[in-house]
Amino acid sequence: MKMLIAIDIDHTLVENEQANAALNQRLEVIRNHIYLVYVTSKSYASSHEQIAQIKLLKPDYLITSLGSEIYQQGVLLDQDWANYISKDWNRDTVWAIASQFSSLKPKPEREQTPWKFSFRLDMNASLDVIKDLRALLEFAGLKTEVIFSNGQDVDILPHNTSKGKAAAYLQQLLQIQPDATIICGGSGSDISLFQLPSPGIIVGNAQTELLWWYYNTRYSHHYLTHYPYAVGILEGFIYFDILSFSQIDTR
Fold first, then answer.
1. Cα separations (Å) of 97 from 132, 155, 170, 207, 226?
2. Which residues contact 138 (CB under 8 A, 6 or more apart)?
3. If the chain, 251 residues long, is cut into consecutive pieces of 10 residues, what is the mean pLDDT of each piece?
């Protein structure tokens, strides 16, 4: 039996090259016993650059664009997932509505994907813009997810899409039980991952949104580390005794 380890890149593996190297080394020890999955809010192109830049191990799966795309071996688009989330997704109409809000500034073209629109909310704008956007999309009969994170990022996705739902899809695809999955993250947009009934490692540098959610839920299967970034993941591996996983008889 293999274990699935899902690690957020954005606010978890971006700071300390030496710590990332140590994490790579530990993961290599159990590499044959795990499915390694990286998760990111960024697009496929941006995430590939980031993986190369911070010298991460090659993943078995890559979940990008807030869960709207899944790539096997980090390169092959999972078409079944794409077909599933495409139901009821009217990209042109979503864009026509969102573009009416002048306080929503589109991110660079590379961050706009077939299943995600990404904006930054003007720093002087009211948060009522998010509420109005959701209301207008609903009024138009569009089923969408509007995700507001980091105090400024606004993303619009198909309604059945999130990082957590993408991870749950991989659990089902790979026949991995929830208790054989470890979630590692620190972004506000990782909350859907931690809503899965799986052990979770929340790194010490986690964003305020995720920390607020953690302190208001206090699930016993979550561990908030003392250390930040990759060092925090290693701390969590020790807490959950992950590094001994290779000793398990998998015959």
1. 11, 13, 32, 30, 43
2. none
3. 94 84 93 95 92 92 97 93 95 96 95 96 93 96 92 93 97 96 95 97 95 95 96 95 58 33
What is the total residue count of the chain? 251
Write the CB contacts of 43 (distance below 8 Å, at least 6 apart in sequence). Answer: 64, 65, 110, 111, 112, 113, 116
The per-residue pLDDT for range 68-99, each reduced to its tens digit, is 999 998 889 999 999 999 999 999 999 999 99
Q: Which amino acid is at 140?
A: A
How far apart CA 165 and CA 162 sit, in angstroms, is 5
Strands (E), 41-160: 61-64, 69-72, 76-77, 104-106, 117-121, 144-149, 153-158
Domains of the chain: residue spans and CATH: 3-79+161-247 (3.40.50.1000), 88-158 (3.90.1070.10)
In three-state secondary structure terms, 15 is: coil
Tens-digit pLDDT profile for residues 193-202: 999 999 999 9
CB neighbour class for 75 (10 Å; exposed up to 12, middle 13-18, buried from 19):
exposed
What pLDDT score was predicted for residue 244?
67
What is the DSSP secondary structure assignment for residue 58, as one 8-state letter?
Answer: P
